[in-house]
Amino acid sequence: MLNRLLSIFLLVALISSNFSRLFIYAGFEANRSYIAKELCVNKARPTLHCNGRCYLMKKLKQADEKEKKQEREEKRNQYQEALPVTSATQLVVTSPSSQKKYAVMPAPGLLQQPTSIFQPPKVV
User: Fold this and answer.
1) Domain boundaries, the chain
2) Residue 31: is it exposed, middle or buried by C-beta count within 10 angstroms (0-12/13-18/19+)?
3) For 1-52, where are the alpha helices, taking DSSP H only?
């Protein structure tokens, strides 16, 4: 039961962030008379017939700016996660404790006589 309630709550929270414009429009329609009388910027000029749409546009612009700000913050956080500022690991190179010595091999016999292998082409 608790898991079901938690999943429904998280689903509603996720959907509400995507439908913020819908909630702004719904709030405007529900309170249109109050917004037109009290909150309208152009209530002193009734010839414009604004009826609170100026307030609606202002709220929609604020919501868009808030979404853009959140996107910038997310991109900044992703960049910081991809490229850490301080390096916690250090690479330490040490010389080997013992050196192996190999016997010197003489060059193979064929390389001592290159004329027997390499011959220029004959012109006919």
Assistant:
1) 20-82
2) middle
3) 2-18, 20-30, 32-34
